[in-house]
Structure formats: structure tokens, C-alpha cells
Write a structure and sequence with these properties.
mainly alpha, 7 helices, single chain, flat
């Protein structure tokens, strides 16, 4: 679009400008072919003779033209061909744009007709939709009321089921109590039998003349107590039997009430099911009518959206083609700038690669130095452990020598350890050894003396004398 608005130097019409641009490559190539074929003609002496009269020319006697670059000529020819193709595509786009505008006007008219039809359909369907909505509201209210009644009936049924569970629990507890009372009654009967046997034996003993009066009185008191216990046990058994019969009567009444309530709940459920099915059929009919109306409106809306989408797609295609045309015009400048930027980045990457190589060399050197230092540290640690082992061996030998030199004189045995003088050299050696043992880390070959044990007086005297003898 922008290329057609540029004026030519002679101020001609657009068609003349296109013709001049199309003929420009031929005008540029024709003098070069003439120069290559005949170098003795007047065109070879004066290449600007074919120039128009209105353009200033320079004589070839004073200015020497450079040789033509065939690759540049081919590139310019291809660029001109591309420009001509773009111009042709632009003319086709203009015709397509006019055609699309005509189609757009036709679609606008069709959309107006469809909108009128849709508005009339909405106006005609409004009373029917209102009637359907009213019926739907009534049916939904009835359905909610029936659902509430159903919920109440379900809660009542759940309560009755809980009552039946409680009745079962009471029955189980009653059976358990019956079993316990039977066991207790059996125990009481056993006790009564024992007491009767005791009574018989007591009567037999009372008839015997050798029994004293006190024993007879004791046996009679035991008999009375046994009879009293038997009477109490009979009363308790009768009370438990009465309570168990009352519980059985109450459980039977509860079962009868539960059966009556279950029958009522079943009748209510049947009534609720019938009413729910009738309401559901009415609601389904209302839904079907409402769905048919909605389907009609949806079809009309889909047709309108389809036509709008087609129109929007045509407009997007036109805009996309215009955007591509403008993008082709700016690709050359963008390519040149990107080439320059890539060259600069290539130079920067070369500099960064050299820096990385240098850093890798430094890292390798430092790694070698670190490994050598670690090996040296391990060697020094080995030498240190050997020296500590030798020092411990020397200390053991010195201790053995001191033990051999201990029974040398009887005076040294009788003398107290407090009066013996200690040489300063020995004290300083001991202090140095204690400091060295406290500072140096624990090694597997070193032996430490426990701080709680003190040396014996004989060993201390031997140690105090042995360095003096060595120094002498």
C-alpha cells in the first residue's frame, strides 16, 4: 500500500510508475551487454548517452566507471522481482478486500434479518416460557414438600429402628440376668441341701446322749440362720422372676408398637413413592417443553455466531495478509542488524572461551597442588605416629631401668618420699610431657596415665634418682 503512494521523478500516474519500475532492470542490463559485445562503438565511449535529457550526465573521459559485479546485479534483479511480486500480490489483495467488503455487507443484511427473526421468536415464546416456569415452580415446591415429609418419615423410621435395637439389647440383658439368677438359685439350693444335711446330722447328734447342751444350742442357731438365708434367697428369686416377667411384657408391647409403626412407615413410603412418580412425570413434561424452546433459541444463536465467526475470520485473514506485507518490507533491515549482532556475539564468545580455558588450566594446577599437599600431610602424619611410638618405647625402657635400679640401697627404702629432693630437671620434663600429652591428639599407639591413680613412693624415689645417675 505504501509503495503505490510514492511519486516518480517525472510525476506520472501509478500505472506508469509500475511500468517504469518493471523496465528498470532491463535498462540497467542493456548498457552492460553493449559494452561487453562492442567496445569500439559510441556507447562504449560514452555510457551515459542513453540517459534522459533531463538528468545530468558525466563524460567517461573524466570519470572511470567500476566494473559491474554480476552477483550484485543478480541480487538487485531478484529484489526487483520480489518487489514486483509483492506489488502484484497487493493488487490481488485490494481486489480481495473489495470482494470481502461486498460479502461483509451481504452478511450484515443477513444478520439483521436473523436478529429480527430471533427477536420475534423470543417475543412469541415469552408467554409459553412464563407458563412453563410457573408450572415448574409449583412442581418444585410440591417436590420439596414431599422431600421434607420423606425426611421426617425416615427420621421416625430410624428412631423406631433404634428402639428395636434397644429392645434387643434389653432382651439380651434379660436373658443374661435369667441365667445369672438360675445359677444363684442353683447355688442356693445347693446351700439348702448342705444345710439340711447339716441339720440331719445335728438332729442325729442331739438324739445321742453324749452331746452337750452348748453344742446342741450352736447347731440349732446354725440351723435357724440357714433357714433364714434360704427364705431370703426364695424371696429374691421370686422378685427376680417378677421383674423378668415384667420385662418380657414390656418387650412384647414394644415389639407390637414397632410392628405398627413399621406398617405405617411402609404405607407412607408407598404414598410418597406414588406422589413422587406423578410429580416427576409432570416435571419431565415441563422440562421437555422447556428443552424444545431452548433448542430453538440455541439453533438461532448458533447460526448468528457462525456468521459472525466467518466475518471475523475474513477480517483476520485480511489483516494477516497486510501484516505479512509490512513484515516482508522490514526483513532486510532486521536481517542486517541481526547479522551484525551475531558477529559481535561471536567475538564475545571467543573472548569468553579463552577466559574459560585459562580458568580450567588454573583449576587443574590447583588440583595437582592440593593432591600433592594431601600426600605430604599423610606422610607427615605417618612420621608423627612413628615418632610417638618410638617415644612410648623409650619411656617403657626408662621405666624398666628405673624398676631395676629401685632396690639399690636400703636407705632409699626407709626414707620417706616427702623428704627426698626432686630435681628441677625431672619436674620440667614431666611438665613438658604432660603438656605434650594434653595438646597432641589421641593416637592408637600412645598410652595415657589415668589421673585418678598416683605413683607409689618407691617408683617416685626411683624416678627421682635415676636421672641423677644418668647425668652423672
Amino acid at each position: 500500500m505504501s509503495s503505490s503512494s510514492v511519486d516518480t521523478p517525472d510525476g506520472g500516474p501509478p500505472t506508469a510508475r509500475r511500468g517504469a519500475r518493471a523496465a528498470c532492470p532491463q535498462a540497467e542490463l542493456r548498457p552492460s551487454s553493449m559494452v561487453m559485445e562492442t567496445s569500439t562503438g559510441p556507447a562504449a565511449r560514452d555510457p551515459m548517452a542513453c540517459a534522459p535529457s533531463g538528468v545530468p550526465s558525466v563524460s567517461s573521459i573524466h570519470v572511470a566507471l567500476p566494473p559491474l559485479d554480476r552477483s550484485a546485479v543478480r541480487a538487485s534483479t531478484s529484489q526487483l522481482t520480489g518487489i514486483l511480486e509483492h506489488v502484484t500480490a497487493l493488487a490481488a489483495l485490494e481486489s480481495d478486500h473489495e470482494e470481502l467488503q461486498g460479502q461483509f455487507r451481504a452478511l450484515q443484511g443477513r444478520v439483521g434479518v436473523l436478529e429480527e427473526q430471533l427477536t420475534s421468536a423470543y417475543e412469541n415464546a415469552a408467554p409459553f416460557v412464563a407458563h412453563c416456569q410457573h408450572a415448574y415452580d409449583m412442581l418444585s415446591g410440591q417436590l420439596q414438600a414431599s422431600q421434607l415429609e420423606c425426611a421426617e418419615m425416615r427420621s421416625a423410621l430410624a428412631q423406631r429402628l433404634e428402639n428395636s435395637e434397644e429392645i434387643k439389647d434389653v432382651q439380651q440383658s434379660l436373658d443374661l440376668e435369667k441365667q445369672m439368677r438360675a445359677e444363684e438359685t442353683q447355688w442356693f439350693h445347693d446351700q439348702i441341701a448342705d444345710f439340711e444335711a447339716t441339720l440331719v446330722s445335728a438332729r442325729a447328734a442331739s438324739n445321742h446322749p453324749s452331746v452337750s447342751g452348748e453344742d446342741l444350742h450352736q447347731v440349732r442357731s446354725e440351723r435357724d440362720r440357714a433357714l433364714q438365708r434360704a427364705a431370703e434367697s426364695d424371696k429374691a428369686a421370686q422378685a427376680w422372676e417378677a421383674s423378668s416377667s415384667a420385662l418380657e411384657t414390656a418387650s412384647a408391647q414394644l415389639r407390637h408398637q414397632v410392628e405398627i409403626q413399621e406398617a405405617k412407615v411402609a404405607d407412607l413410603q408407598d404414598q410418597l413413592g406414588r406422589s413422587t412418580r406423578s410429580f416427576q412425570r409432570q416435571l419431565d413434561r415441563a422440562h421437555e417443553e422447556l428443552d424444545r424452546v431452548r433448542d430453538r433459541t440455541v439453533d438461532a444463536e448458533e447460526q448468528l455466531q457462525q456468521t459472525t465467526a466467518e466475518l471475523h475470520q475474513r477480517t483476520q485473514d485480511r489483516d494477516h495478509i497486510a501484516t505479512n506485507l509490512r513484515a516482508h518490507q522490514t526483513q532486510v533491515a532486521a536481517a542486517l542488524s541481526s547479522i551484525a549482532r551475531l558477529e559481535g556475539r561471536a567475538n564475545d564468545l571467543q573472548v569468553d572461551r579463552a577466559l574459560v580455558d585459562r580458568l580450567q588450566l588454573d583449576n587443574a594446577t590447583l588440583s595437582v597442588d592440593l593432591s600433592s599437599a594431601q600426600r605430604r600431610c599423610s606422610d607427615l602424619e605417618t612420621a608423627r605416629s612413628q615418632a610417638v611410638a618410638e617415644c612410648d618405647a623409650i619411656r617403657g625402657r626408662i621405666a624398666n631401668l628405673m624398676s631395676f635400679a629401685q632396690p639399690s640401697t636400703p636407705r632409699s627404702r626407709s626414707a620417706s618420699p616427702e623428704r627426698l629432693p626432686r630435681p628441677s630437671s625431672l619436674n620440667t620434663r614431666k611438665r613438658g610431657r604432660s603438656r605434650q600429652s594434653s595438646r597432641s591428639p589421641s593416637t592408637p599407639g600412645r598410652r595415657h596415665r589415668s589421673p585418678g591413680k598416683s605413683p607409689s613412693p618407691a617408683s617416685s624415689r626411683a624416678r627421682s634418682r635415676s636421672p641423677l645417675r644418668v647425668t652423672q
